[in-house]
User: Which sequence fits this backbone?
């Protein structure tokens, strides 16, 4: 969902992880660094990283694929150092992906039921499982087979028996879809015309054996959001909160707009809010737009 600013992801756009950082771009040094020899880019990072040794170690582990032998703490849970861009950013910067955790701590309690659609390696699933405890439940859905394997190992590492995992895609119907498999942008894998074949089902079908009120439904599926909600009529009727990503450029590529998605959610009985870093909720309407992407909160109408 959210990282600590855009910087957390933008540094992982080359195989070696030595992309030009945003601060170099802003200072006008982009051209000289982007086309510079590898050693110059490497030395730039060593000089500018807050923890250069940790940064260098992460790149060695990332490229050697030995990182899965190492685990690191994120406070209430631990993670394997898998070769994924989100894991790499969390290792480099302990603040990365923490905004979601702040939100989760504010809305979740022991015993809650959470559904995480587009779980990746567990940056919402794991803290949610810690918060709801053994009396609660977390259902985590991740369609990409390799990412799902990482997610499963992270859940096992933390001995979170309250987490149920599904390696499927969810949409408005049953069938099959194809999924991308970006090695360096694994957090942006999505439904495409050709790629990995993945089973498709609906959220209503998937959750038919998970009774009770859903405290939080989180959805981050890179432009497939509208189809997820269209196949979740019964699920939405028993959901209190929806935490979801909007990105107009992703939606347009799937044949709909941000307004189409927001109208669907409002018509399902929810009010919409933008939540700032302090937790303040500001209401928005179905015409809400943003540059790039952001997360919105939908609350069941009282």
Assistant:
């Amino acid at each position: 969902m959210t990282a600590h600013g855009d910087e957390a992801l933008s540094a992982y756009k080359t195989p070696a992880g030595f992309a030009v950082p945003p601060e170099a771009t802003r200072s006008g040094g982009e051209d000289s660094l982007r086309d510079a020899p590898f050693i110059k880019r490497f030395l730039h990072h060593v000089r500018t990283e807050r923890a250069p040794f940790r940064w260098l170690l992460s790149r060695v582990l990332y490229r050697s694929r030995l990182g899965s032998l190492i685990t690191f703490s994120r406070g209430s849970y631990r993670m394997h150092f898998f070769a994924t861009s989100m894991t790499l950013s969390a290792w480099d910067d302990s603040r990365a992906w923490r905004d979601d955790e702040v939100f989760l701590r504010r809305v979740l309690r022991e015993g809650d039921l959470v559904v995480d659609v587009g779980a990746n390696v567990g940056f919402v699933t794991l803290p949610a499982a810690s918060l709801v405890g053994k009396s609660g439940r977390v259902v985590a859905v991740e369609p990409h087979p390799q990412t799902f394997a990482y997610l499963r190992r992270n859940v096992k590492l933390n001995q979170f028996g309250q987490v149920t995992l599904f390696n499927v895609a969810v949409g408005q119907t049953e069938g099959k879809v194809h999924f991308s498999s970006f090695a360096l942008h694994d957090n942006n894998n999505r439904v495409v015309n050709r790629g990995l074949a993945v089973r498709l089902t609906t959220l209503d079908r998937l959750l038919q054996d998970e009774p009770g009120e859903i405290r939080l439904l989180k959805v981050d599926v890179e432009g497939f959001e509208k189809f997820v909600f269209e196949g979740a009529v019964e699920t939405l009727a028993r959901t209190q909160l929806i935490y979801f990503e909007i990105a107009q450029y992703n939606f347009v590529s799937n044949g709909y707009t941000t307004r189409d998605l927001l109208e669907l959610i409002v018509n399902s009985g929810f009010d919409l809010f933008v939540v700032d870093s302090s937790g303040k909720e500001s209401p928005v309407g179905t015409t809400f737009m943003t540059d790039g992407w952001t997360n919105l909160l939908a609350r069941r109408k009282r």
